Amino acid sequence: MEFLGMEKVRDGKYLKNYELSYKNKAGKLKKFEIVSRKDLKDASELGQKPSGVSIVAFKDDKMMLLREFRLSINREIFNLCAGMLEEGESIRDCISRELYEETGLKVKKIIDILPPSYSAVGFSDTTTYIAFVEAEGEFEDHTSDNEQIQAQFYSREEMLSLLKTEHFSSRSQMAAWFFTCGIRPEQLKTICL
């Protein structure tokens, strides 16, 4: 593959659309459409600036999931607490703010923060961190009028049942599945290192 160029074709409020030109391995000129959360100057910036965080939160040997309505699919799904980094905000501050805004909970302890990974590599350059945290406090609704979110902690048995019957985002489904395998939050760092 040979990259030839990039052109912005739409500048939305939250998403920017770009058309990438390249030659495929057969030497044919091709166009590929992507969306980005960033205003990109050139191709060297593709996927370089993380946009936000997804949070895997635990409390009392249970894992939290959000049941939220997502406009893009016109239905409720199970998802992780997540959100966008604000200008000048540290990742740790973003984790605390998003957890509080979406659930009312506070971060008791950050277990680990994984390096940024691609969220939807098939059509976007968006990258986000994944954070594992211990949470504390009680659920409160601090969401905007544009969000419909219900947060709850689930045991391994409850999570296994949800995995067999409910709709999930891919990241939350993966986190939930690993949780059902019996890995406790305090084991994460020792198992992974």
Structure write-up:
β2 (16-23) and β3 (29-36) form a beta hairpin. The chain contains four helices and ten strands; from the N terminus they run βββββββαβββααα. The protein has two domains: 2-45, no CATH class; 52-192, Nucleoside Triphosphate Pyrophosphohydrolase (Alpha-Beta Complex), CATH 3.90.79.10. It is α+β, with helices and mostly antiparallel strands. It starts with a strand and ends with a helix. α2 (156-165) packs across α3. The strands form two sheets. Strands 4, 5, 6, 7, 8, 9 and 10 form a seven-stranded mixed beta sheet that branches. Strands 1-2-3 form a three-stranded antiparallel beta sheet, with no helix packed on it. The chain is elongated, with a radius of gyration of 19 Å. The model has no long low-confidence stretch (mean pLDDT 92).
Radius of gyration: 19 Å
| Fraction in helix | 10-25%
Strand tally: 10
Number of helices: 4
**Element-by-element helix/strand order:** EEEEEEEHEEEHHH
Give unreliable regions as ranges: none
Shape: elongated
Structural class, please?
A: alpha+beta
**CATH A-level architecture of the largest domain:** Alpha-Beta Complex
The overall pLDDT, averaged over residues, is 92
Secondary structure blueprint with pairings:
Blueprint: E1 2-11, E2 16-23, E3 29-36, E4 52-59, E5 62-70, E6 75-79, E7 81-84, H1 91-103, E8 106-118, E9 127-136, E10 149-154, H2 156-165, H3 170-180, H4 188-192
Parallel strand pairs: 4-9
Antiparallel strand pairs: 1-2, 2-3, 4-5, 4-7, 5-6, 5-10, 8-9
Summarize the structure.
This protein is α+β, with helices and mostly antiparallel strands and 193 residues long.
